[in-house]
Design brief:
Elements (H helix, E strand, L loop, with lengths): L8 E3 L7 E8 L4 E11 L1 E6 L2 E2 L16 E7 L7 E9 L20 E10 L4 E5 L5 E4 L2 E5 L3 E5 L8 E2 L1 E3 L6 E3 L5 E8 L2 E4 L5 E15 L8 E7 L1 E2 L5 E2 L9 E5 L14 E10 L9 E8 L5 E5 L2 H17 E2 L1 E2 L12 H14 L3 H14 L31 H13 L3 H20 L31 H22 L5 H18 L10 H9 L6 H14 L11 H9 L4 H9 L6 H6 L35 H8 L2 E3 L8 E4 L9 E8 L2 E10 L2 E8 L4 E6 L2 E5 L2 E6 L1
Parallel strand pairs: 6-15, 12-22, 29-33
Antiparallel strand pairs: 1-14, 2-7, 2-10, 3-6, 3-8, 4-5, 4-7, 8-9, 10-13, 11-12, 16-24, 17-18, 18-23, 18-24, 19-22, 19-23, 20-21, 25-30, 26-27, 28-29, 30-31, 31-32, 32-35, 33-34
Amino acid sequence: MNILEQAKWISADFGEVCPIYKKEFAAAKPVKKATLTITAFGFYIAEINGERVGDYIFAPGWTSYDFRLQYQEYDVTAMLSDKNELRVKHGKGWYDSPLMGKPDKFHKYDKAILCALEIEYADGTSEQIFSDDSFVAAESKIRFSEIYDGETFDARVESENWTAVKERYFPHGLLIPQQGDKIVEVERLKAISTFTTPAGEVVIDFGQNLTGYVNFLPTGKSGDVLELSHSEILDKDGNFYTENLRSAKAKITYICNGADDWYTPNFSFQGFRYIRLDKWSGDVNLDNFVAIVVHSDMKRTGHFECSNPKINKLFENIIWGQKGNFLDVPTDCPQRDERLGWTGDAQVFVRTASYNYDVERFFDKWLSDVAADQRPDGGIPSVIPSPWPLIGLDWYHSSAAWGDAAVICPWQIYLTYGNPAILEKQFDCAKNWVEYQRKAGSSEFLWDDGPHFADWLGIDSEPGEYRGATDQYLIATAFFAYSTELLVKSGKVLGKDMSEYETLYNGIVAAFREKYMPNGKLSSNTQTAHVLALYFNLTTDKAATAKSLADLVISSGTQLMTGFVGTPYLLHALSDNGYTELAYSLLLREDFPSWLYSVNQGATTIWEHWDGMNENGEMWSADMNSFNHYAYGAVADWMYGVCCGINIDESRPAFKHIIFKPQFDTRLDYAKASIDTRNGKVAASWKRDGGKVEYSISVPNGCTASVHLNGKVEEIGAGEFAFEV
């Protein structure tokens, strides 16, 4: 039995003030082991005898709260003495954020904590302490804290007026042990400069757009109020810009007590590069400001470098985009009043994500929430964990390319890490999603109904329209085919009879060709339509479709016109079909629209819009313009797989058998990449020497590889190899 089942949910209501709970207890005998098990609706920070328990930030994390709530276990043996005090600070967290709605209206439960402390003594006896009405509560120094709006902290407050807590009769059945990676403080960035803007504002620059918070040393006498605001970017005049935060206040307010120590926000995080000192006492000393980067505790596994420094900066920006948005769930942005687990962003980026970092555990947890939030009809909310069905926004579910994350993500996680357990766990969810698509259209083979996000933010969209020009039902049916194909592959890995879905897949492909490719030509004459037809193997004549795609790219000025749906596959569709030079031209392009345009504009992360800020410093829009939005960073999987040639063999995943198939370009002098895999480190590099290219690879022990060079395929075993091309 889970020890938390014997504990009581407890809470205290002090309005916007964060409560702090207290329990005093003795441990008079020598302690062999002590374990604190704890969770909350909201965020918690536990302390024993004034020392913080563990290094988990924003515990217990974000899950589909109606179905799943993680708890954490901490070894606190070394923290106990004869007389002890357990304190737990409690904040709103994701659970009570404005987007989730107010608990009394939309949630089944109010904010509350649940904990149990088990002490095993050296003499063989034990003792358990449970959260219950023996705890007391008081107001904390945290007068307000919320993930979007920031935190107000009054250092003068002392928690003295302890009052009784309320026992709450909330369920224990949704509790699960920690499943995902914990969130941690990863690195600290010093402030690099301070300046006064044309508007007279004092601004501090950390040199990097990041997700986290500022640790600072307050100055001022008791009662002085210090205020800091956060921003990603400066406007065209060099002033502090916050319009793109929408309603998020992103403000820290600190009230001095005259004997201040370093302060770090407790329950709030922001996406920012700059802070503005709205109110400050005394001189501004850069040494007194440190930005703390927080994200899920992922191990870095992938690296890429080439002779073009701007491409290297792009790759660095992709890494920062992943760090900034892999905060327990794959969020779309860390700065504005959103920060949600959009499924479409996750699925287009999952391959790149799994090469850059070890995200197996991260996606295992998030995909469990995808399954938990799946609708009874098989539909998938576009945001996971999903608050929106609770508040009637039913339009935001089951869009093509978004809901398909239910199939695409587990398949890629299996390919990268080789563990079929993820396919087994998610199979019913994936199958139910395909069945939803099967029932959604005018026939079982077409998905030609319902609203979709389509090719979101496509360059070829009409003025004022966010969706690109590609027929949304062409996209929907294409992804219906792709998900069905991946479902078949997943089922076969698990030893299931997939003949029904093989028949379904063949029917979808035939229906797609009949409706959307009459006479072999796509009914939507867009880049994205051609990309999907090629990458999803829906065209009967790849050569003709590839030529048509190349012609569209060239006639557009050798530029992409794609959005969220077409961009991740665009370079692959070209290089897989004989247009590698054109793919490199798109990668290396520096004018808008391109990956390097934002680099030239000084970006340190990936932007939501190709022209989030134009060359005149004007913003694309005020309402939807994130400067840390990782989706277009999916291009990194092309850098690994095509530029350096490192590819997975689906029949032997986790790089047990590697397919080295590089494609070079004369505009680069060298490129190199490596991935730390479950089977060892895989590496590939090439450098140009006059008219020749030397290609070098590393195959880990126990692995084999196929090397595709000079029109030949060579099978090799483990070791270091060099080839001349």
